[in-house]
Amino acid sequence: MPQQENAPAGCLKRPFSKAAGESKPEAYHFSPTHPKLPRQLVLRVGYVEDFDKPRTKHGKRRVSARRGWAGEKGDFFSILQELDMIAIIDYGMGNLRSVSKAFEAVGHQAIVTRDPRAIGNASHVVLPGVGAFGDCMANVERYGLAEPIRAAIQSGKPFLGICLGLQLLFEESEEFGTHKGLGIIPGRVRRFTVDQGLKVPHMGWNNVALTRPCPLFEGITNGSYWYFVHSFYVDPSDKAIATTTTDYGATFVSAIWRDNVVACQFHPEKSQAVGLRLVKNFGVWHI
What we know:
Elements: E1 11-12, E2 28-29, E3 40-44, E4 47-50, E5 63-65, H1 76-82, E6 86-89, H2 96-105, E7 110-113, H3 116-121, E8 124-127, H4 133-142, H5 146-155, E9 159-162, H6 164-167, E10 170-173, E11 179-180, E12 185-191, E13 202-207, E14 209-210, E15 225-230, E16 232-236, E17 242-247, E18 251-258, E19 261-264, H7 272-283
């Protein structure tokens, strides 16, 4: 069986067959302490790390050779169905590590993946994002993620968009021309036109006003401060989907909630205690 090089510790990788025309699979990042995870995780194809074995004097756990999947829990995608596992979509741009660490910090299991099967089998899905709208949307299309995202939302599972992950849900953006979005939420992404000496991008801490109750804001004080970095804001056709607003020269929608979708312009993973509370609330949110 071919060997997969440079596999980081704590990654589960599926064996692949060159003869069958398969390409190397993605890495799936886990905390090895979850009670329902396989006892052994694949470090590289054909090799597994046993987390029950003591570490060597160099701090590494002993590795034994074994073919195929490790453990006795079945394949990776079956494991996802057994767990409340959160899929963080990787389209090659965005603050993936900081979002993943936020979920780890509140005790939720999360994977970073662009595999449509993992996204489809996860219990919750997160679409993060940092960068230019057109470039990010091009990457979403390039990796074949547009339909898995739409399917995840249509399935009714909890879905969280963060920053550009909010904007991509809309029909189009006027950032550096006109670019089509995923078209899930009717509306447009517009550039700030501010006066009063305010700078664009809107960067730093600003308060967020709840316009209606939302399960992800449970236990969070109305008017709390959150961290923003953006030059564009969403303008939904249906103003009733707004769940928070923020003032920056004018009032703009800073979070929306429609059915199983909550998406925010601010960064929960950078917003300290209130952000971690929202992340925790999302992980226990069931529709």
